[in-house]
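Appendix B, Record 12. Input sequence as logged:
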Amino acid sequence: MAKGTLYITATPIGNLKDITLRALEKMKEARLIIAEDTRVTAVLLNHYGIKTKTVSFHKFNEAGRIPRVVEVMENGGDVCMVSDAGSPMISDPGYGLVRECAARGIKCEVLPGASSVIAAITLSGFNPEKFLFAGFIPKKEAERGRFFEGLRGREYPVVLFESPKRVKRALLEIEEAFKGVKASVIKEITKIHETVYTGSPGKIASEIPESSFKGEFVIVLGPQEPEAPEAGAVRSRIDGLKKAGVKTGEAVRLAAAEFKIGRNEAYKIAHEKEEE
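Logged structural output:
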């Protein structure tokens, strides 16, 4: 008997029309749908008249559910895995199941679709050519500090998830941790009340009405200006290169590239060293 397939199925992030025909087809044909929250998924399934059996599959029961789900596919049944919204496994459970399928030779296919990460970066106004998705901001104070410290100095946008209950707090913390950084906060993506706030994190925090801190939020931090290196460090690097036999001009060029400063600035630092 041929084994079934696990379909990693993206679902709408707000507007129920934002789902592919292929995803609807596979959910209707599947033997089983595993959902992060069956109550949330029921809204989508009822809207499209899908009667496929659905069971819960979330971070609290994932380990216990995997054997049962794998058994369905071992016996030839297809399974669709969905999260509450967007693409499964992006800050949601499912990785363990995919890993188990790979180990057992069960085919996995992705049915791509809506993603709040991609929607947010394209709406943010920042260059989306390169960006980092860092997931949810930790809840605990100490972990939040380490988390933000790890994002310092990024010269490209960073996409973050945060609970609506902590969005204002997060924006104020970001304002303190990343001096001068610009941000974009997108609320209720694809829904009727979709709103994009831009500016400094502190300004955005003050602009969002207290009554509006509910629903779904995505925070996008703009690129950060690199901190100017200390002249002494640049001089030391140039001296080290010269001692290694590198000519002055090349040493200056290499140091400028390493410290991400202009070549003229590096020449000035080298020249100041020679005059001392």
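Strands lie at 5-9, 32-35, 54-56, 79-82, 107-111, 132-136, 158-162, 183-187, 195-199, 217-221.
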